[in-house]
Design a protein that fits this description.
This protein has helices at 3-22, 30-42, 51-66, 96-113, and strands spanning 72-77, 83-87. With 118 residues, it is mainly alpha-helical. The chain has a two-stranded antiparallel sheet. The chain is globular and about 45 Å long.
């Protein structure tokens, strides 16, 4: 199976499973999945977040997702339990479609590593 086909199949599986679990069957979009990963990484699941914290959660997720690609490195956890990352390498300029593919690939890899999907 071609790499792109495998990515699409795995992405669809991630979306299906997460949508079933967290969105009552509505289809989650990329940003929603990134947000869920941020909540997972923070570990404070049963809490309500204000808008600015939601953006911080998405930032945590993006750092975690792009860490294996060498763009970020985990630095420390602050007194409130929030993880912090430092930039190791600037992200290259990517077109919107390329950004989407990179994030979907990173999300699929994250969930494979977490054994959420095969």
């Amino acid at each position: 199976m071609a790499r792109d086909e495998q990515l699409k199949e795995r992405w669809d599986l991630v979306v299906e499973k997460l949508s079933r679990q967290f969105a009552d069957g509505d289809t989650l979009d990329l940003d929603s999945i990134i947000y869920l990963i941020g909540v997972q990484e923070l570990g404070q699941i049963h809490r309500e977040y204000k808008k600015d914290h939601k953006l911080d959660l998405m930032h945590i997720a993006i750092c975690k997702l792009l860490e294996p690609y060498g763009f970020y490195e985990f630095d420390f956890v602050d007194d409130d339990g929030w993880p912090h990352y430092k930039v190791k390498e600037q992200l290259p300029f990517l077109k919107a479609g390329e950004q989407s593919v990179l994030m979907k690939e990173a999300i699929v890899n994250y969930f494979v590593e977490m054994e959420f999907i095969d």
